[in-house]
């Protein structure tokens, strides 16, 4: 009885070429998908950090952070004070902390007192009074941001500084500490970070708003209609 010789290569034949190719395709697909998801998550995380880095001030704070509105602003910007007077301050009152409102500094080069005003707000924040100074700077806009005749943008730093110190007293700050903090590197760093984050997000003008990470681009031109658009967007996010 003869024994058939077996080819050792044939006897140990592995997976077929088709199976190998299929496995390679699957592995590549998983890698690509994983890369896309990781990239998207990294982009989302980067946007979130640029919008609201640790230690950001808030004008209102919800308990669940379901809706977050971020405003890049310039305290000497006429459009910003118009928004404050006619839209955002009333939003804070009407929504009673139902959304989180995060202000970020984006002083424009065309406004010579924008950085000193931002320093005043940040210095007040170091004593827990950012919100109060934020409102005081806008409410007292005509006393420091424009010339005494009201016709143009002011560059009078001495007059502005006197106004800032007056606001500081009104909101209950320690004036000596306030004056020291005005020149603090940490205060300037917060302003610089706001500018850098805004540029990263494509901000070129003020005010610029983001609602839950999406830039608010109103279609209306009047303040009243823009107010309605912003409220409608916030309401949709709250209901979602």
TrEMBL record:
GO terms for molecular function: isomerase activity; oxidoreductase activity. It comes from the Bacteria. SUPFAM superfamilies: Thioredoxin-like (SSF52833). Residues 37-235 form the Thioredoxin domain. Transmembrane segments: none annotated. Keywords: Disulfide bond, Isomerase, Oxidoreductase, Redox-active center, Signal. InterPro entries: Thioredoxin-like_fold (IPR012336), Thioredoxin-like_sf (IPR036249), Thioredoxin_domain (IPR013766). Belongs to the thioredoxin family. DsbA subfamily. This is Protein-disulfide isomerase. It comes from Goodfellowiella coeruleoviolacea. The lineage of its organism: Bacteria, Bacillati, Actinomycetota, Actinomycetes, Pseudonocardiales.
């Amino acid at each position: 009885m003869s024994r058939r010789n077996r080819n050792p290569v044939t006897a140990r034949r592995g997976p077929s070429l088709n199976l190998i190719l299929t496995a390679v395709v699957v592995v590549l697909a998983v890698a690509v998908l994983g890369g896309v998801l990781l990239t998207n998550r990294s982009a989302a995380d980067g946007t979130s950090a640029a919008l609201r880095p640790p230690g950001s001030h808030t004008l209102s704070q919800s308990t669940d952070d379901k809706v977050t509105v971020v405003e890049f602003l310039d305290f000497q910007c006429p459009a910003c004070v118009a928004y404050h007077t006619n839209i955002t301050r009333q939003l804070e009152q009407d929504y009673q902390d139902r959304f989180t409102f995060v202000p970020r500094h984006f002083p424009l080069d065309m406004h010579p007192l924008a950085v000193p005003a931002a320093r005043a707000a940040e210095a007040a924040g170091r004593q827990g009074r950012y919100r109060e100074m934020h409102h005081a700077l806008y409410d007292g806009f005509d006393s420091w941001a424009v010339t005494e005749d009201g016709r143009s943008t002011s560059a009078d730093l001495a007059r502005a500084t006197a106004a800032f110190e007056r606001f500081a007293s009104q909101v209950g700050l320690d004036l000596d500490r306030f004056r020291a903090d005005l020149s603090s590197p940490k205060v300037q760093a917060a302003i610089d970070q706001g500018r850098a984050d805004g540029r990263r997000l494509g901000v070129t003008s003020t005010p610029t708003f983001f609602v839950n990470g999406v830039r608010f681009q109103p279609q209306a031109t009047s303040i009243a209609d823009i107010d309605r658009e912003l409220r409608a967007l916030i309401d949709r996010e709250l209901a979602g």
